[in-house]
Structures are given as structure tokens and as C-alpha cells.
Design brief:
By secondary structure, the protein is α+β, with helices and mostly antiparallel strands. Helices cover 18% and strands 48% of the residues.
Length: 464
């Protein structure tokens, strides 16, 4: 059966044939049968044209409906995308580890560091000590997480797995409102610039001698920090380290205050600080001991040592600190005086420690600084991106005096140098050398407490 379109074409062809018939042929009159046939074809042609017009109308109507449906679908998609954008879906970034930020201020970031040390301590041959010679250790193996909570709250939890033990280092919850930060839990009290700066960012493998000798450590407490313009104020009430809370010596309480001015003069960052500390040792702690290693941690040998000092009631101390960062150059100095208060008429010794350091980057880098502490270098040309990393040299003089009021723990003068290669923001390598001069040392060499010791050390470091 022929389609209506083919029939229409045939009718048109027939009409055209009639139209093109020579005039001589048309001159002959039509018979009734011929006229009837021609009229029938013309009526059929009109019906076919009417059908075609109807079909064309249906096609146009279908196209209009389809366009409306497509427009409605596009509107729904746009509304869905806008709704998803308003819901603020989780965003994942990368800062050495994945950092996830969600709706309303939630965030979560894993934290970790691996610091592996090795080296040697060379003392006079007359000193026989198992802690001398070559040594190595996993200085720190820390894992944890930190983040934010809606409403201005934050958290940090970190544990150290070095020495085949698990020690909780930071376990805090914070609240921030403008320049005010409240912190509760196990955290650093406000001992000074280098102690508060992360071990990831120090200029030498170990901090200045007094920070360890005077027992600086994290403690459980409640503290407040307020920053306004170039000024920073910190204060807190603390008890013991969280690892000591289950022991008998867990009834100490103390407070710390620190004030810092950190004005900038053009591109020069300056730092001036002072701190005061008081700690009631409690009834259970009846003695104190102050001692220090030879500028490395992988040995347990302490050449200066006061031994146990009985009758201990409380400690009071104060510190002064200053620093400057100018382009590739930095310098820092600290001093700390600690007085042990003893019962009755017993003598109260005062011990002192202090250090002065300076450093210079051989590459186009600078030392980081923020909110009263040193921060890590942001490498300008890291390895892996066509650069050679950041190269830095440092020198330091470190003095520790544990002789006073009849107690002769000895003095230690350390002359130190370090070379640091920071490959990128997360990996760095350190090499250090220290020449340590002792006077009245607790360990004798050939019957004398006056001699020198050399220590060499290296560190591989990964942090994120």
C-alpha cells in the first residue's frame, strides 16, 4: 500500500502532466467521464494537503512540549546544584596528610612525626660508661589527630610510641573567640620560646640544656591566651603530667604566666618575652633532681647532676627571651632562673640556664614565626618541584649552671653548630656537633671534674 505522501506525489505528477499538455490537445472538449475523473483527483489532492498540514501541526506541538520538558529538567538540575552548594559538602585537602572540612566548621586532620637520631659521644678515655660511643634511637614517633568543632571549639590528641611505650603528649579541647583561646587538658605550660616551639622546627637536635634539666614538660591544666595587635598574654593553672596522675606523686599544683611583644619593623620580625612560674610540689614529692645529657638524647649519661635534693617544697622560676628574624637571618636568646624552695632553714639553691643562637639560610628561605613561637620553614624551591630544598647553618652557645648553695652539680658550656637540609615542608635532615666543656662535673675523669666532651649527631625527620 502506498503511503499518503507517495499518493500526493503521484497526484501532483498527474496534475503537472495535465498542465503541460499542449494547448492543441486541450482544445478538444472533455467528456463527462474525463471531467469527473479530473475533479476527483483535485478533491483527493485537497484532502492530502489538509492531512499534511495536520501532521505538520502535530510535529510542531510535539517540539514545543519537548522544549518545555527540557527547560523544566534544566531548572530542576540548577536548583539541586544550588541546594548542594548551600549544604557545604565535605572538602578534602592535602597538607602532608588528608585534611577534611565539612559543614558548620567541622574538620579532621591526621597528625604524625618520625624523628630518628644517631651519633656518638666521645669523652676522655678514663671515663668508662656504657652510654658513651655510638648510639641511636627513635627520638619521637607520634601519631594523632586535630580539628575543629562547630561553635569555635577545637581538639587535638597525640601520643608518642617511642621507647616501646605509649605516652600521651597532647590531649586538649580548645575554645576560640576573637583573640581569646581557652585550652583544657594535657598541654605545654608557658615555659619559654624554644620549649613552646615544636621539636619539628628547632635549630638543633636538642633544645637548650636548661629546658630538660629544669624538668619542662606537658601537664594537665586549664589555660587562657589572649592576643591583641602585637601583644600576647598567656596564663594557666596546671598539675602533673598525665602519666604521673596515677602515681603517689600527683598532688602538685602550679601556675604560669607569659607575656610576649612581637612588633614588626618593615620585614623584620622581632620577639620579646618574659615568663614566671610557680609550682607547689605537694606532700608526696619530697626531693628534686636536676641534670642534663651532653646535647643529645640517645645516651643516658649525665655529666652534670645535682643528685636528689631533699626537703623540696616548691619551685619558682622566671625566664627572659628575645629573637629577631630578618630575611634569611635569625637570632634568639633565652635565660631561665630556677629557685628550689626547701623546708625550714634548709638552703634554697638557684640554678641558671641560658643560650644564644644565630642562623642563616644559604637558600632563599626564612624561618617561620607565629603567635610567639618559631614555626617551620615554607620551602621556596622544594625537592620534587625542580628545587634543591632549603639549606640552613646555625651556631649556638648554651650554658647550664647547677652549682649554688652548697650543691655542686657542675656547669656545662656547649659550643654547637648545625647544618639543616629541609627537602620540602615535611622532610628534613639535621647534622649537629657540640663541644662541651665541664667544670665540677658529677662524673670524674682521672679524678677531675674539669674536662671536655664531643658529641656528633644526625637526624632523619618526617612530619605531617
Amino acid at each position: 500500500m502506498k503511503s499518503p505522501m507517495l499518493k500526493t506525489i503521484g497526484l501532483l505528477a498527474g496534475t503537472a502532466t495535465i498542465a503541460l499538455t499542449p494547448a492543441s490537445a486541450m482544445a478538444a472538449p472533455l467528456t463527462e467521464e474525463q471531467a469527473a475523473a479530473l475533479l476527483g483527483k483535485m478533491n483527493q489532492l485537497e484532502r492530502e494537503v489538509a492531512d499534511l498540514r495536520a501532521q505538520l501541526g502535530n510535529v510542531q506541538q510535539t517540539q514545543q512540549v519537548s522544549a518545555s520538558a527540557i527547560a523544566a529538567t534544566d531548572a530542576k538540575i540548577a536548583a539541586t546544584e544550588e541546594k548542594l552548594a548551600q549544604q557545604d559538602p565535605v572538602k578534602v585537602g592535602w597538607k602532608g596528610a588528608p585534611e577534611m572540612k565539612g559543614a558548620d566548621g567541622w574538620s579532621f586532620k591526621p597528625r604524625g612525626r618520625l624523628l630518628y637520631d644517631f651519633g656518638t659521644v666521645n669523652a676522655p678515655d678514663s671515663i668508662v660508661d656504657a652510654g658513651l660511643g655510638f648510639g641511636n634511637e627513635a627520638r619521637r614517633i607520634r601519631l594523632g589527630a586535630s580539628g575543629s568543632i562547630p561553635g569555635g571549639f577545637g581538639y587535638k590528641l597525640e601520643a608518642d610510641f617511642a621507647d616501646n611505650a605509649i605516652d600521651l603528649t597532647d590531649a586538649i579541647i580548645t575554645y576560640e573567640d576573637g583573640g581569646l583561646t581557652l585550652t583544657a587538658g594535657q598541654h605545654n605550660n608557658f615555659q619559654g620560646l624554644e620549649e613552646l616551639s615544636s621539636s619539628n622546627d628547632t635549630s638543633f637536635i636538642e633544645r637548650a640544656g636548661f629546658t630538660d634539666a629544669f624538668g619542662f614538660e606537658r601537664q594537665v591544666g586549664l589555660s587562657a591566651q589572649y592576643g591583641v595587635s602585637d601583644l600576647l598574654f598567656q596564663a594557666g593553672v596546671f598539675t602533673d603530667n598525665i602519666d604521673d596522675l596515677s602515681s603517689d606523686e600527683n598532688d602538685s599544683v602550679g601556675f604560669d604566666v607569659r607575656a610576649v611583644a612581637m612588633p614588626k619593623f618593615g620585614d623584620v620580625q622581632s620577639h620579646f618575652g618574659a615568663s614566671y612560674h610557680y609550682r607547689d610540689l605537694g606532700d608526696a614529692m619530697t626531693s628534686r633532681r636536676y641534670r642534663q645529657r651532653p646535647a643529645v638524647h640517645f645516651t643516658d649519661t649525665r655529666f652534670i647532676d645535682t643528685g636528689n635534693i631533699s626537703g623540696a617544697e616548691s619551685e619558682s622560676s622566671y625566664g627572659l627571651e628575645a629573637a629577631v628574624i630578618s630575611g634569611r637571618f635569625h637570632a634568639a636568646a633565652e635565660g631561665h632562673w630556677l629557685r628550689l624552695n626547701r623546708t625550714g632553714a634548709l638552703a634554697d639553691p638557684t640554678f641558671f640556664g641560658g643560650s644564644v643562637e644565630a642562623g642563616f639560610f644559604l637558600t632563599d628561605d626564612t624561618r617561620g614565626y607565629k603567635e610567639g613561637v618559631f614555626k617551620g620553614v615554607k620551602v621556596s624551591n622544594p625537592v620534587g618541584q625542580g628545587g634543591m630544598g632549603a639549606w640552613q647553618i646555625n651556631v649556638r652557645y648554651d650554658h647550664l649552671d647547677l652549682v649554688d648553695a652548697g650543691f655542686s652539680g657542675g656547669t656545662q658550656d656547649a659550643y654547637q653548630a648545625s647544618l639543616i637540609w629541609t627537602a620540602n615542608d615535611y622532610v628534613r635532615f639535621l647534622m649537629t656537633y657540640a663541644r662541651l666543656d665541664y667544670n665540677s662535673a658529677a662524673i670524674l675523669a682521672a679524678g677531675s671534674g674539669d674536662y671536655s666532651v664531643d658529641s656528633f649527631a644526625g637526624r632523619f625527620q618526617l612530619s605531617f
